[in-house]
Design goal:
The protein is α+β, with helices and mostly antiparallel strands and 212 residues long. The protein contains 6 helices and 11 strands. It folds into 2 domains: 100 residues, Alpha-Beta Complex (Ribosomal Protein L22, Chain A); 104 residues, Ribosomal Protein L22, Chain A, CATH 3.90.470. The protein is globular and about 50 Å long.
């Protein structure tokens, strides 16, 4: 079943996760795609990206929405005409959307060794404390958490390393606290994460404003 999982963190938030198994032809069936989206899909060089993009449109349908209700601000942040908040992510064989009455950001990533090569660009050891658990998975969760918080910020320009931090975490807990500190934006976020098991391992990380 392509709809892999539905998560409801609270009464006002639903997360939909799709396992991308269909062909491009199958994904084009049964959904409305507006002209701009059709043009965008046509310009994509990778079929993997095309399938990810189209699977997100199927997730919109699962949520009772269509592609016509989705638009983007000048910084590339997705928005819904209803005023509800939405966040979108896809990576290889999985895609996800998160819809909420409050700010939300979500990110899916495949766990890969190559993240070690770029970790210095987003991990700041002055703020981000590592445990003795699997380092590659930790880096991937940290990246996902920072990506999720970045997606909430509406104006762009954040540095993952300098402006976004995440508290220490353990895999068994599936949660942490994140913080964005940039200009007049100083906010804490509840971070939740889970592992998606396929032939490869994926992380799904989402951030929501911390409730005090």
């Amino acid at each position: 079943m392509p709809l892999y999982k539905i998560i409801k963190p609270n009464l006002h938030t639903t997360i939909y996760i799709w396992k991308i198994e269909e062909s491009l032809t199958d994904l084009l069936r049964g959904i409305y795609i507006n002209p701009k989206s059709k043009e965008r899909v046509g310009k994509m060089q990778s079929e993997l990206h095309q399938r990810g993009f189209l699977s997100v449109r199927h997730l919109l349908s699962e949520a009772g929405l269509t592609d016509a209700e989705l638009y983007y601000n000048k910084y590339g942040k997705p928005l819904l005409k209803s005023g509800k908040h939405i966040s979108i992510s896809h990576s290889y064989y999985f895609s996800t959307i998160a819809i909420s009455g409050d700010d939300i950001g979500i990110d899916i990533e495949m766990v890969r060794d190559k993240i070690k090569v770029i970790q210095h660009k987003f991990v700041n050891t002055d703020f981000d404390t590592l445990s003795n658990e699997d380092l590659i998975k930790q880096y991937t969760i940290i990246w996902g958490a920072k990506e999720a918080m970045y997606k909430i910020y509406p104006y762009g320009g954040l540095s993952f390393r300098e402006h976004i931090a995440i508290n220490p975490f353990l895999f068994k807990d599936g949660k942490s606290i994140g913080y964005v500190n940039f200009k007049d934006w100083h906010k804490y976020y509840d971070i939740s994460f889970l592992f998606l098991e396929d032939k490869d391992i994926f992380t799904c990380v989402y951030a929501m404003p911390q409730k005090i």
